[in-house]
Amino acid sequence: MSDCCIAGGGIIGLSLARELAGRGMAVHVVARTRGGDTTSWAAAGILPPAPLFAGCPPGDALTAWSDQLHREWAHQLRSETGIDNGLIPSGGLHLVRSSAGQNRLQNDLERWQGRGVACELLDAAGVLACEPALAGGNDASSILGGLLLPGEMQIRPSRHLDALEASCRDLGVVIEEGDVRQIIVRANRVERFVTSSGEVRSENFVLATGSWTGGLAAALGLTLDTRPIRGQIVLLRLPRPVIRRIVNRGLEYLVQRPDGRLLVGSTIEDIGFDTGTTPHTVARLMGVAHSLLGELPGVEMERSWAGLRPGSADGLPSIGRVPDVDNAWISAGHFRAGLHQSTGSAVLLADLITGRPPHLDPAPFAPGRPRPAAGASAPPGSTADYLARTAAAGD
pLDDT tens across 138-190, in order? Predict the structure, then answer.
């Protein structure tokens, strides 16, 4: 019998497994899907600057801590496994095309500067000097300015997953494929998971199955809003890189990989558990690439895919013990920040499971905390907030 059984083989589950196994615990992971089939693999890998500043809200504090841990983990994982997860400070360029956008950009500049983040406000000429390839875009004349964030980073999610899995196996973590189909609870304790391949008994049980976590949590009497929000991405192959930085335009983005591949994303779609892509959206994303970069000689569309981000009612993930169940734990609902917050989430929950004083106050992330009142404004970063912004952008 293991010390901890984790349902979920994505970045949240494997990060926790690595952290617990590194503390000497026997860990068993039940992964519904593996590798390229996970939402974690489907992420673009954008890590915006994440400073710790005075009055930092809980979600931002978790991201700031996780950001620092990512730098440590990248070095450790490469040393342990030989896999480079591609964490690099590529920088980010945020574009605007309207006077209203310029006003927002000025507000963003003041917000970032107030947090101590290096940033620079650029006019149209400054944007094109920063990224000359944008001058060839079909909509180049509409660029009015931009905000340069030199500290924005990118990571290769597929490589990060490979490194995490290799590290976990080296630490003795058992990883098996299967679905958790039933949770058996007796006397306020989970006794076992019934999976598609058998039964698993453990001292502790963790639900870290992304968008599917809400359905499993219901079996423990917990209401958790992890509804799936689909994001579609197109991957282009170019003979060589054409931009140096991550380029953002509203909710659209380009992420250039050093090997010439270019990610174009994304969407925010509330359509249930559908991981398919649609021809209309793929065509629209191709249009985004051409509007920003123009014709791309030698370009090939390598593939397209979609991932399901686990929603959050209040913009914060749920990390902690399930109310009224002594040995059941949750780490889910990270929405668009799951990759970025994965390291801090792992250490925070590992601290709670092993009884160590946590680095962060866990109360704001407690599963079962009060939900936003009906009719209240959508909290920033919540599922409802992003859906509203998408509708306003005409996505």
Answer: 999 999 999 999 999 999 999 999 999 999 999 999 999 999 999 999 999 99
Q: Residue 113: left if φ>0, alpha if ψ -120 to 50, beta else—which one?
A: alpha
- The three-point CA angle 371-386-330 to 5° equals 45
Burial of 378 (0-12, 13-18, 19+ CB in 10 A): middle
**Architecture of domain 92-150+228-310 in CATH?**
2-Layer Sandwich (3.30)
- Chain region(s) in the chain for CATH 3.50.50.60: 2-86+156-226+312-377
What sign does the CA torsion over 59, 60, 61, 67 have? positive
Tens digit of each residue's pLDDT (9 = 90 or more) over 86-125: 999 999 999 998 877 788 888 999 999 999 999 999 999 9
Looking from the CA of 38 toward its CB, the CA atoms found within 13 Å total: 27
Contact predicate 97/141, CB 8 Å: no
